[in-house]
Write a structure and sequence with these properties.
- The structure holds two protein chains of two kinds.
- In chain A, 28% of the residues lie in helices and 18% in strands.
- Chain A is an alpha/beta fold.
- Chain A has a domain at 34-236 and 326-352: Thiamin diphosphate (ThDP)-binding fold, Pyr/PP domains (Rossmann fold), CATH 3.40.50.970.
- In chain A, the strands form three sheets. An eight-stranded mixed sheet of chain A has the order 4-3-5-6-8-7-13-9, sandwiched between helices.
- In chain A, helix 1 packs across helix 6 (204-216), helix 2 runs parallel beside helix 10 and helix 3 packs across helix 4 (130-139).
- Chain A starts with a strand and ends with a strand.
- By secondary structure, chain B is α/β, with parallel strands linked by helices.
- The model of chain B has no long low-confidence stretch (mean pLDDT 96).
- In chain B, helix 9 (244-259) packs parallel to helix 14 and helix 11 (296-308) runs parallel beside helix 12 (319-335).
- Chain B is 36% helix and 20% strand.
- Chain B is globular and about 95 Å long.
- Chain B contains 20 helices and 25 strands.
- The chains are: A alpha/beta, B alpha/beta.
- At the A-B interface, strand 3, strand 4, helix 2, helix 4 and helix 10 of A face helix 1, strand 9, helix 9, helix 11 and helix 12 of B.
- The complex binds iron/sulfur cluster.
- Iron/sulfur cluster binds next to loops of chain A.
Amino acid sequence: MTTDLRMPLHLLPADAESGTGSVPLLEAGQALTKKDFTSDQEVRWCPGCGDYAILAAVQGFLPELGLKRENIVFVSGIGCSSRFPYYLDTYGMHSIHGRAPAIATGLAATREDLSVWVVTGDGDALSIGGNHLIHALRRNVNLTILLFNNEIYGLTKGQYSPTSRVGQVTKSTPLGSLDTPFNPVSLALGAEASFVARTMDSDRQHLTSVLRAAAEHRGSALVEIYQNCPIFNDGVFDVLKDRTQAEARILHLVDGQEVAAGDRVVVRDDRGALSLVPRVEADPSRIVVHDVAAQDPSAAFALSRLDSPDLAHVPMGVFRDVARPTYDDALREQVASARTVEVTDADIDALLAGRDTWTVGG
Amino acid sequence: MSHSMSTKKVQRLDRVVIRFAGDSGDGMQLTGDRFTSQTALLGNDLSTLPNFPAEIRAPQGTLPGVSSFQLHFADHNVLTPGDAPDVLVAMNPAALKANLRDLPRGATIIVNTDEFTKRNLSKVGYAQSPVDDGSLESYHVHPVALTSIAVEALASFSDLTRKEKERAKNMFALGLLSWLYTRPMEGTEAFLKSKFADNPDILEANLTALHAGFNYGETTEDFAVSYEVAPAAMEPGTYRNVTGNVALSLGLVAAAHRARLPLFLGSYPITPASDILHTLAGLKRYGVATMQAEDEIAGVGAALGASFGGALGVTTTSGPGLALKAETIGLAVSLELPLVVCDIQRGGPSTGLPTKTEQADLLQALFGRNGESPVAVVAPSTPADCFDIAVEAVRIATTYRTPVIVLSDGYLANGSEPWRLPSTAALPDLSVEFASEPNAVNADGAPVFHPYQRDPETLARPWAIPGTAGLEHRIGGIEKADVTGNISYDPDNHDRMTRLRQAKIDGIAATIPPLEVEDPSGEAKVLVVGWGSTYGPIAAAVRLARGAGARVAQAHLRHLNPFPANTGEVLRRYDRVIVPEMNLGQLAMLLRAKYLVDARSHTSVRGLPFQAAELADVISQAVKEASA
Ligand code: SF4
C-alpha cells in the first residue's frame, strides 16, 4: 500500500491552520502513489466524460497531501459525478441526492482527524441540495467541496440544470429553458464561503493547483469544476479549451497580479463596477490587482459577475481564500472546554439525579 | 416563612387533581411545575399534563390563549394526570370558561376576581360574571382578588412597577395552594433564589408574594379547611420528578456513556421535540455534541455522517420532520449503520396540532419510506420509561447496525412522573467493537475487507470507521452485492439482500423480552393491548373496570417492530382483544394483518390522552359481551 521514498514527503505543513492540519500524516519515509488511491472498481462513466480527467487529477494529487489514506473520506450525493467515491480507494459514501454536505458536516464535526471531501454536481449541489450547500459554506465546515458543473442532468438523461443557460433546449425544455441560471461562484460568495475557486476538467495543472489550495484551506472550500458531458451537453466549454481562444477569454486569477485576459485587463470604475478594457486604454491606477485574502467579499463577488453567458470572458482560479473560524473546530472546542475530565459512572449518576431528589426508605 | 401552627382543621385526602389555568403569559406552567416539585418532594405519587396553545402569546384574555397544567397526586400509585380536576385555579374568565366543562359538580374553583372585569368577561362572551350570577352554584367557588392582594403585599417594593408586581400573582397563587394542600415551599424558595440570583428585587418580590399567598390561606375565613395527602408507598430508592423529553435526553446520554461512544445530535427545532435539543445542548460536559441543522433532512444527515465516523448519531423530531427524514433513514437502512431517530408525535396530518398529543405516526415509522425498508421501532409507555426506551434504542441500533425509531408523543414529552433513579453502572454494557482488521481474503489470498459480511447471529455488518487502516471501503444507497458490498444490479442478489435486511430486523425479537400479560384473576377473556403513551390511561381504566367486577387482562407493547416473539400466542389466548389508540387503529391493523386475530379498535384523536373512565366503560362493555 505504501511505498518507501528516500525523503519524507510532507508538502503541506502539519498545523491546525491547514485544512488537513489535524489529519495524521504518513510515517516519515513513506509515501503513497496514484495507484494506492485507485480502487478495484471498473469506472463506468461514458467514454470521453470529463469526470475521467478529474478523477485522474484527484488520484494524482492525493498522494501529495502525505496523509494516511485511511483518514481520507469522500462523500457524494447522486448524479454522474457522485459515483466518484467508488473509484477512489479511500473511505467513501455515495449518499442521496443533494445531502452530501449535511452528511459530511456530521462526519467532519465528530472526526477532526479526517480529511473530508464532498463530490457533487450542478443538479445535486445547486438544485435539490442547495440548502445544504449554502449552510455548509455559511458554517465554514472543514470540507473540500468539488462541484462538477456540466450544466446538464446527465444521470437522468439530459434535462436542463440550474446552471444551464437561458434558452437551452433539452429533453425537458424543448422550447428552451426559461429560468436564469445560478453562477455557483457568486452563490458561494453570497453564502459567506471562505474559499471559492473555479477550474476546468481538461486543465490538469490548473485543476491540481486549485485542489492544492483548496485542501490547504481550513474551512469550507468550494471548487467549481467545468466538466464536459459529451453525451448530453457536449462542448459547452470548448471555447475555453481551445488554446487560441482561451487566452483571450480566461481571466486568470492569481493573487497579487493584475486580472487580465489576452491584451485586455479588468478595471474598476468610480462606483466599483468592473469591466474589461484593452490594456493600452486602461488607466493603470484602475487596473484590478487580485487579492484572494481580502476580507470584504465584494471584490471577489464583482469578479464572479464578469462571467458572460457566451464565455466571452470567464475568471478562473481562486476567487477568495480567507481565514475564518470553522464550525467543526468551534463545536469541538465547546465540547472540549466544557469537558474537563473523563466522564465516570458517578458523573452520569449525578446528572440523572438532577437537583431535586427524595429518598424512599426500604 | 410561616409554618406556624394553624388553628384550622386539616383534612386527609387520598388523591387530588388540580388544574392551574390562566393566560399563556400568566406563568401557569411554572406554577404547575413548582407545585409538582413540592409535591414530589413530599413523597406523593403523581402524574402531570401540561396543555398549552400553539401560539406563544395568543391575544390576552381570549380562549385560544389559555394555558393549563394539571397535576394528579395521591397517597397511592398514580397512572394518569386524572380525568377531571377536583380543583381549578382560574386566573381569568377565559381560563374558567375553557376548563369549566371538565369539572365535575362539587369541584372547587379558585378564581382571580381581579381579572373578572367587564372587558375580560365580554372577551369570552360572558354577559355578567359567572362568579356572581349563580351559574356556579354547584361548585365550591373561592373568589380571591389574587392580583390586588399580591400587589398590596408588595407595596413596600418602591423600585418595582405595578406590572412587575402583578406578575408575582402566580407565586401568590402557588403560596395559597401550598397552604391549602400542606406542601413544603423550601424547594420553590431555592428555585427562585437560583433563577433570580442576578435580580434581588424580583427575587424578594416573588418570595414575598409566595409567603403572602400561604399566609392568606391561613388567615382568610374563606378557606376553613386545609388538606394533606400522605406519601405514597413507593419502591425504596432515590427519586426525582421527570418529564418524558428530559428522561429521553438523559437516556441517550447514559446509553452513549455505556456504549463508550460520543453522542452527536443533529436536529431542527420542532414542537414538541425541541426540549430534547435544548437539554442535550446543555450537556457538552458529558461529551455531547449538538448541531442545530438547517432543516430536518440535514439534521438526520449529519447524524448519519457522525455514525459513519463512529459516533452515536441521533436525530429528534416530530411527525412532519419524520416525513422529511424518510429518505435519509432509507439510506441508513441501506448503509446498515446505527442511527437513533426520536419522533415525538403530535396531532397530524401536516402541521396538525403541534402542541397536542397523538400516536398516529406508527405506520409512518414502520413503512414511511420507499422500497422494503425495515427499521426497528420502540415506544416508551410513561415519561420515566423514556429513559429506558432510549437505552433500548441505542442497544438495538448499535448491536444490529440499524436505524431505530423511538415513538414518544406530546403527552409523554411534557408530562411528568416520579422516576426511581437507576444506577449507571447497572445499565446494560453497550460497548461496541469497531472492525479493526480484514475479514476475508481475495482470490490471491491477500487479506481484504468485506463491509457486508454479516455476523451470523445478529446479521449485523461490521462497523468499520474511517481512520482504520486496511479497511477502506465505499458504501452507498445503491444495492450492494452480498458480502463484498460492491454495487450490484443482479436480481437474485437484490432479492437476497432485501430478505437479509428484513431478517436482521425480525431477528431483534430474539433479544427483547416477551410480551407480559397482567391478569390478576387469571380468567380474563378480554385482553386490552396498547402501545406508547396510552399505558397510564389503559392501566387506570383496567383498574376501574376490575374494581367494578370485570375480569380483564392488560398487555402493553414497547417494541413495535419487531413485536415480541410471543405476541401472536398471547393475542390468541383471549376471546376478545381491544386496542385503544390515539389514532384510527394503526396497531390494530398491524395485529390483525400479522396474527389474523379479531383485534378491535377503540380510538380517539382529540389531542388529549384517553380518559380512564371512558375507557373503563368500553372495557366493561366488552367483558359483558364476551361472557354473554
Ligand atoms: S452522462 Fe455525461 S456526465 Fe454523465 S457520465 Fe456520461 S458523459 Fe459523463
